[in-house]
Amino acid sequence: MAYNKKAVLAANAEAIRVVLRLEKEHRMATEAEKRILRGYQGFGGLKCVLNRTDTPADIRYWSKSEQELFAPTQQLKQMIYREAVDAHTAKRYWESIKASVLTSFYTDRRIVSAISDALATSGVTLKRCLDPSSGMGAFAETFAKQVGIVDALEKDLLTARISQALHPYGEGNIFVRNEPFEAIAPLEETEKYDLVTSNIPFGDFMVYDREYSRGNDLFKKESTRAIHNYFFVKGLDCTREGGLVAFITSQGVLDAALNEPIRRYLMQNSRLISAIRLPSGMFSEQAGTEVGSDLIVLQKQSGKEIGEELEKQFVQTVAVPKGDGFTMAFNHNSLFEGSWDDVAPRTIATSRELGRDPYGKPTWKYRFEGTMEELAESLRIQLTQDVTARFDRKLYETGIAMSEEERQNEAEKQLRKLGVTVRLPGVEPKVDEEQETDNAYDLMPDSIKSQLPKLYDTEKQLIGDRTAYVRYFFPLGAYTAYLLEYNPEERLGFGAVTMGYGWELGYISLDEMREVKIHGLGIERDLHFSPTALHEIAELEELVQGRYSKEVVVEAPTVIVNEVIQTDPPAEEVVEEPFLEGTPINPIEKNELVEPTWQEQVSSMLEPAPEGVPALTLQHQYEADIRTDLEAPREMGGQMVYFDDDHHPVMDTTDVGLEQAGYLFAPEEYELWTQEVARVNREIKEVNKQQTASKPKQSSVKRPRARRSTKLSSIEQPSLFDFAEEEREVQPVTEVKKSFDASPRPFLSLPDSHLRDGSIVLQNGQVGYLSNLKRQPTFHPMDLPYERLTKLKAYIEIRESYHRLYDYEANNRCEDSEERIKLNRLYDDFVSRWGYLNQKSNTDLIKMDATGVEILFLERSDKGEYIKADIFDHPTAFATTEVTVAADPTEALVSSLNKYGSVELDYMSSLLPEMEESDIISALEGRIYYNPEVDGYEVADKFISGNVIEKSEQIESWLLEHPDHEEAQQSLAALRAATPTPIPFAELDFNLGERWIPAKVYSAFASEFFETEITVTYQSTMDEYVLQCDRRNGNIWHKYAVQGEFRRYDGLNLLKHALHNTIPDINKNKEVRDLETGETKTIKVRDGHAIQMANAKIEEIRQGFVDWLGRTPESFKQQLSDRYNKLFNCFVRPNFDGAHQSFPDLNLKGLGISDLYKSQKDAVWMLKTNGGGICDHEVGAGKTLIMCTAAYEMKRLGLANKPMIIGLKANVFDIADTFRKAYPNARVLYPGKNDFNKQNRQRIFNDIKNNDWDCIILTHEQFGMIPQALEIQEAILQKEKDSIEENLEVLRQQGADISRAMLKGLEKRKQTLEAKLQGIQDSIAERKDDAVDFKMMGIDHLFVDESHQFKNLMFNTRHDRVSGLGNPEGSQRALNMLFAIRTIQERSGKDLGATFLSGTTISNSLTELYLLFKYLRPQALEKQGINSFDAWAAVFAKKSTDYEFSITNDIIQKERFRTFIKVPELAAFYAEICDYRTAKDIGIDRPEKNEILHNIPPTPEQEEFIGKLMEFAKTGDATLLGREELSEKEEKAKMLIATDYARKMSLDMRMIDLEKYSDHIDNKASHCAKLLNNYYQKYNEQKGTQFVFSDLGTYKPGEWNVYSEIKRKLVEEYHIPSHEIRFIQECKNERAKKAMVEAMNRGDIRIIFGSTSMLGTGVNAQQRAVAIHHLDTPWRPSDLEQRNGRAIRKGNLVAKEFADNKVDVIIYAVERSLDSYKFNLLHNKQLFINQLKSNQLGMRTIDEGSMDEDSGMNFSEYVAVLSGNTDLLEKAKLDKKITALESERKNFLRERNGAIGKLAEIDHSLSYHTGKIQEAKKDLACFEQRVERDAEGNPVNRLSIKGVEDCSDIKVIAHRLQEIEEKARTNGEYNKIGELYGFSVMVKTESSSQNLFDLSVNRFFVKGEGSIYYTYNNGKLANDPKLACLNFFNALERIPKVIESHEKEIAKVSANKEVYTAIANSSWKKEEDLRSLKAQAAELDRKIALTLSPPEEEKEEIDKMKQGEDLSDNNHSAGVKDESHPAQDKEEDYRSQNFRPKWRH
């Protein structure tokens, strides 16, 4: 039956309708509804659900073949959204449907039945089965018939809901869960499955399984890369040893060569039972697809060797070569290699043929001719044979594999079962006895029955000597029994039994055992148990208790027990009969053999009980010691009673007899009970007397169990668990305990949000725990003692009250006093009855609850006592501080802002009852302004800030309707006065692609630039420009296009790159030689020339946009500048003046200061007003006190409820100490070192959540341990998913059909993204406990000290080849911070929410500003249309692209954001939220910086090496440097290597080669040592100290390094004591570092060496510092500032008193090295950064420079700097520009020549077509003149053919034509065969080859008067004679169409002629620029020559230079050089570099 999409869609829709109805009505499905549900077939073949169906117009996006499905698909979507419970559920269902399109292929149930039947032939019992991808449950339902329990997992939401409706929880043995396979945690061996089977998902999607993805097992980690591999590896993990895995899977598992390691892993851990290839069309009926699949069955056997040949073939793949008929080779598994006769037995197919898979790749297509029933039967037979031959029964049952002999025997046995007896020895026509005994559910087979003794036959034996003949067990419980005796008539036995609480002897009824069935499983017989003595069974040791014969077996002594039963205290006599004479027995052995008396047995096993109570009814169920720590003992009935863990009473009977036994009941109940027991016992005594009289010769041992002499009636049959010990007709009255029903049941209430799986709850008065909360909440009753149940009920009330209270107050931000009173009452009651929650007697019970740990934190320990948490007293989820009286209007204003966030005059008047409202407004004039938008007043700092232009426009509009409102006019005047001066159009810098410019502007520019209509649109969600052009011309195809080796990049492509400011990555083939093999291979490399050409055209387009803007009308320019000013030049930073603040509670005396700095007050006021920001103060400016004061003030004023400060580990103690001194009464949480250990974190987290702290202080590392809110992380994940779906939507809108391959790619990307982001979440949560997260803690403001530690934040960019951007992937630390800040921002709905404090917020580049804004100002960026880094860079940055020639003459491209534009607006945006202060601004008393650049001449060795470095930079010859040749990878980083060598050379030549180079008096070490000694001696009396910094050559013990070398010189040459010179690297911990700092401040250490990272931060050793020495210059300006800050800071006493308050900063620079250049670069960069921070830039553009840590310097500047001549540096820059322009001119000339050639082609084409038109018109005139017509006007056919010239019979002529067609051979020439109206009729033979055969075809023509040959029907004759003869006449009638076709070609060719003419006639626009640059270069050449040449050689050099100029000018003006001489090009390109000046020595 063919796959009918419409019918399947209808059936699916009905099933979904039923599911939605069931969910809405909360009920089970009826049988009729279940039939509808079973009709659901999934959406695997219904790609239509991915298309748009929102409006009827969306049908235009659908392919015609699927448009009939549009209406039902639209109805399905509408039905889901209409009938779902809510919109969120509807969306989840629809997304589930779309996501299942690739994976939802369901297996025909007939196929599954065949697999089930075949596996059943193994004859083993399958107890537990797992279907990990159940779909609609075909596997689960089929195997449920033969398996005890089936667990079914289904990831797809909709399919799982349908399966759950078909198999409701608790009905049947199928349990469906809506979870993926990866949700299963590692299983214990006892939890694993007997069978794991499914049709697993197809595809190579990535899977995230935490245990696999993050584990150490490489195979498991690798398996997660493809979902089918993962299912096999995980399936084996979930299977017990010997269990089976049977999967239907895609052919990729077996055929993919990449999967060989996985297949090898499978064969090393399992036996291959079967691998069968299934036919390609097996899923066609179910899902309409012909995907290839295999059935693979494995039996788990861990750690095995790869066995037989079949398993080796399973591992290997082989290639199907091209010779088999394919155009390309492909792989398949070696199992299917060979002829069809060899392969057929391993397939279920009747044939195979060549074909292609659904993705177009070549493959074998396996076909099966027959019905599905026949296919299933073939599979059943084949799999049965495989199972019979290869299944290891012993391995399944014991976990131990069979030997070869055992396997052979087993195979014979299985064949007998199947009725195959050929060649089998000893075949008997009877049932195999072994087969009978192999049934575990046959509890008593005949073979065992015959061995068992009758009842009572073995009672004389010692208990340990008795034999257990059979063992029974229950798989789902602890029940175990050993059978000792058996009565076959009653099917009643006697033996040892346990229910898990100890062993007892009793009767065992096999009939009752057989009736036990739970979840399809019953009690089983242990097939591997053989008769064994009880003392040899380890688990019966407590029952045997040593009572068995040892070594010598003798007859046991006769023991008579006389039992006297009376109501008085019982007295028992034990009479031991002497041993018989002659019995040799050792006294020791005798003692061993004496069986303990009955009294001893009972006393050892039973508790004392009142008389008459059957002893075994009080049997111990728990082995427990008396523990007074759990519950205090108390007196009951006059006796002390203790309690065990579970509140079971433990009686103390050591000193009391039975007559003093304590009463467990009330006295009245006890008396009645004992009377009844006495009556019953008297009856028993009389019965016993009668039996004794009738049976005088009873056994000498009285067994403590009853005998049955008569057959019991059915009513009297003993229970399975009946252990009565006495035989009696009248049963004694015993306590009957009602059985407890612990079966699971649905949870009837809606679970609260705080409940988890495992939470303890109440339902209908019962206590139990919850499970399956996500799917089907289930309640499990708990059978506990009454005391524990009572305590748990009280606990549950406390927990529920606490959560109600906290949730209400957190959500409504108002107090719930009634619930708080109730919580206190419940808590007090609990404590008064059972003690504190955290007492040992309560914690164990509370921890039984899944969230119980959280409730334990309602108490906290204070001085050894438990006290209530703050939540018992007042709300902790929001602030409750309230101000009632204000001292003045300013304080009233602050209070109003604190309480309401706005100016509330009514409230302010209530705080100032003696002032009128008008007086308050007057007093606050200039502080508050009226804002009509809010109809109220706003504070000036808020009103006159932000986008003042937008505010002005709003008020102007309002004043039009209210012209007389004075307050509004005053507000408008204030805004206008504060508005920044508008920037005119002429001063603006524009980039093509700035997102704020409307896309229509770009459309207008592009249309004019390319001279055709182009539409540009912008997709903001993807930050993508989309271009559309219907009519492309030569400008697009040629002028602005670049031809790569593999594709052409046309003008539209380059325009898109120009808009995105990117460059295409163009590749070419390159042949390289393999150094190992010597073979030549072709690889793809970047095409530098093509990339440079593309960049030149992109720059021309970008410059064209700027030029076009200049030509636009003035009105447009004004509109554009106005728009810019409104968006960017509109921000005002208020002048925050915090002088009015009084800071209540601040303890200035404790801090030891008189007042705060004004800068500190202003910063605190800014933070209070803005709600956060950036505090950018220099080192030593008091940022710590700003944090502490601002945090406390925010808390006091209600601006923040729980502020948190986080800082560096080295600084956090100082922060906490400062806070304590500033606010001694504040409640501050400052956890200790061990408080964040894993076991202590939960208490800290809950302390934060449940208590009202003034501030919480943590280290950066501790903050990172706090789990972040999953909602924030899930939002990011959803945003990325939405982006993928939007990409799909854009494709649909463009009319693109979504192919299956494209869909698979997007789905794979989506799956990979899920796995990647899941991995991010897991790495955060991996080291944290997740009970309380950041959001639940209520933190609402973060103070981040040293915030630059978090600058490495992730961001997305297209600029992946641009250096200096950092790592776009970011760090986990920064991502964690982003999550936290977004949580706070979501709560407040505003930007900020955090305060960043650092002296180096911008450490290296202005690009770091974007990351600051991403953290703190996401909403402000969004208003500017900036939602990504690329959008930000398009507005504020320009990318520089440099091109250099490599050593192989390839062009190397370097990109960097080094130029920033619109910098004042960028600075204003930063300054609005930033308080920037330098030490000078603050007036800090600290030393000044005295910078000294100490120049050092190069040593002779350095001189020589500088020359080598220059040569290396030119040639790339690494051997010059004494190292091996550069590798291919190193060649790309040549300049970075050169820069690194130059740095080492400058520091010390021994850094390069210790053996080759030696010390020198003029190296840096010598100069530094000398200066160090000078300062040492100068400040010797004051013990002045010095810092020496170097990031190269740091100290390493036992190795030569610069640190040690300088120290050696100081000690040996200058005699400075060694102990006064130390290295910071010697400190191994913070304590040692602190001690070294203290020694520096004391002057004990005078000189300290260190690197930037170790010595540059956290070292406050400034008290005696007089000098800082920089041996090298760091890469970042911030590093230089950090270094200098070690000495230039407050507290430097020696510098202040003895060094004119200055610290010398010495920068050591070797001449002609990079030192000076690098220092100047950093100095300028720091200057730019400081000017930007202070918003005092005098320029609109900044150039940061071209040197960075990632790529080093560019070549030309590097060589120039090393030369030591500044003119050379300038010339290098000029040469670089000249080289780039010459390359660009070369490309231009090449294009112009191409255009000239194209023009020639056009002219030739026009001439050709014009000539043809003229010929055709002449032929047409002749034909019309000659043609004859009949009377009716129809033309007459005057055809004349050679051979039948005179004949007019059409048939004869046609016959002749056919003869010519068959036989003529003209060898490709035109042969005349006749005439028609004077035109020659011609025939031509055309030959071709096909399939190695030559074919000849004759075609017929009519030749015109000229050279045109006319034809009809492509020259082929019709079979009809008349039509054949008309062929030539019809050819002549087509002359007008021939003319028309040539005219169309002329129009087409001439359309682009003007474009090519313009290109051919154009001239290069930059010719003058090039000439000017060459003139400047020539002038510099003369200057350099004069400077460098000796006087006597001056004239000669000048003459040479002139000659060189003449030559160079000729070269430069010659136009295009000969392309056949690349060496000439290379020589010219390196003209400047090859100039070698002579140096003076």
List keywords for this structure.
74 helices, seven-stranded mixed sheet, 2041 residues, seven-stranded parallel sheet, alpha/beta
Description:
With 2041 residues, the chain is an alpha/beta fold. Helices cover 42% and strands 15% of the residues. The chain contains 74 helices and 61 strands. The strands form 18 sheets. Strands 3-2-1-4-5-7-6 form a seven-stranded mixed β-sheet, sandwiched between helices. It has a seven-stranded parallel β-sheet with strand order 42-43-41-44-46-40-49. The relative contact order is 0.03. The C terminus is likely disordered.
- The N- to C-terminal Cα distance equals 97 Å
Strand order of the largest sheet: 3-2-1-4-5-7-6
Rg, alpha carbons = 48 Å
Backbone shape: globular
Unreliable stretches: 420-437, 552-632, 634-639, 643-670, 694-737, 1290-1302, 1444-1449, 1746-1756, 1758-1765, 1987-2041
Number of strands: 61
Major sheet attributes:
7 strands, mixed
Structural class: alpha/beta
- The portion of residues assigned to helices is 40-55%
Task: Please tally the helical runs, counting DSSP H or I stretches of 4 or more residues.
Answer: 74
Sheet-strand content, in percent, reads: 15-25%
In round numbers, the mean pLDDT is 75
